[in-house]
Design a protein that fits this description.
Chain lengths: 201, 201
DNA sequence: TGTCAAAGTTAGCGTCTCTTACATATGTAA
DNA sequence: TTACATATGTAAGAGACGCTAACTTTGACA
């Protein structure tokens, strides 16, 4: 349980302590949730003294921000990759996005909740920007499928409906006890249903 | 900011400290979020020593459970009340449920996140049972509207789709920064759209 | 009126936290 | 080889927190 993370610790100097701390932090957030994360834990896992992080981060908050930034960037790239194999303008692309979104939430619930589970959002401009970039991907797909010339009001509405649904599905799926209420419903089938129901006229 | 909550404090003995502590806890969770809630804070707000709660609750967790129980019961009753004015079997009833669900999330985001924003759910049987009761309300409405004889597979699927959507809409609406991405979309209109789109054949 | 349980209080233990000041080891470049 | 900047360690401060033990006040009831 207390795996240490020090890729190339060469005695006193650590190969890349910053990266190691980010990874340790990410793992701990995933394992215990953000409210039980402590800098000390991250240090223990990185095999380093509790004072070491402060040479790389201003404080605890910046460690968490670093993790969030890295993870959301990864998520964005995953979404783009999920899009690639499917023909432009096909509904399958929307489904791929949804599938990926739910998948990310289930694979990394700690990060997902860190990003979305607080009333006070990211606060970090870089994060907000990345969030917008990611949402733009969705809006562009929707516009393309609806044959609209850009992000019209209609596109905005349908995109937000899709996002709401997929986001809710993610939240419910993450919690086994809640997901259970949906019976043995297949996520794929739900995404399929929602896709055409929301995008049709 | 440090309002005290002691309804009829008559010197040494408090009128109903247990209730006062639950209310103080509820307020604090609402104001600072669950991860910044402390028993000490609740005591300060209730105008009582930090040892007092332990005459009424076994520990911090049980204080939080009490709040959650009380709030979810209130939410369930709100939903039933929202249903009442509308004719049986009408789509308006579903919209009323959705409106109330989103409304609750926006009025009491702290509690809402406490209930839904963790991978580990309530754990408390009483809570789980109440959650099921509340969901049953939705399923029954859906069955009634679809003209199905009880909670069939179709009813389960459509109910879960509605829940996912409304839940996601709640989460996004709670966070102004995220809600903003939906432009100036009217919640009422979104609920309307989703209602018939999900329930139609 | 006297007794007793219930419901408070005060005091403090033990633990964990984030953070800093200062000492020390290391790698690099003159 | 020496000097210096960078990276880490050691030690400790300052404070919050959860919770318990033991004492005190209060109200109710015999």
């Amino acid at each position: 349980m207390a795996e240490t993370v020090h890729p190339e610790k060469s005695g006193y100097h650590h190969g890349d302590l910053r990266a190691a701390l980010v990874e340790a932090t990410r793992q701990l957030i995933e394992e215990k949730g953000i409210d039980h994360f402590s800098v000390s834990d991250a240090c223990r896992r990185a095999g380093v003294s509790t004072a070491a992080p402060y040479k790389h981060f201003k404080n605890k908050g910046e460690m968490i921000n670093a993790v969030m930034l890295q993870s959301m960037a990864r998520h964005k790239n995953e979404m783009l990759a999920a899009l690639a194999p499917h023909p432009e303008g096909s509904l399958e692309r929307i489904r791929a996005l949804g599938r990926n979104y739910v998948g990310f939430a289930m694979r990394e619930p700690g990060i997902f909740l860190l990003r979305f589970g607080h009333t006070d959002g990211p606060q970090l401009p870089a994060l907000e920007e990345m969030g917008q970039d990611t949402y733009d991907i969705v809006q562009n797909e929707v516009a393309s499928i609806l044959g609209e010339p850009g992000v019209t009001d209609k596109v905005k509405q349908r995109s937000f409906m899709l996002w709401s649904f997929v986001h809710g599905l993610s939240m419910l799926s993450m919690n086994p006890e809640l997901a259970e209420k949906g019976g043995n419903l297949d996520v794929e089938e739900l995404l399929n249903q929602i896709g055409w129901r929301v995008l049709r006229d």
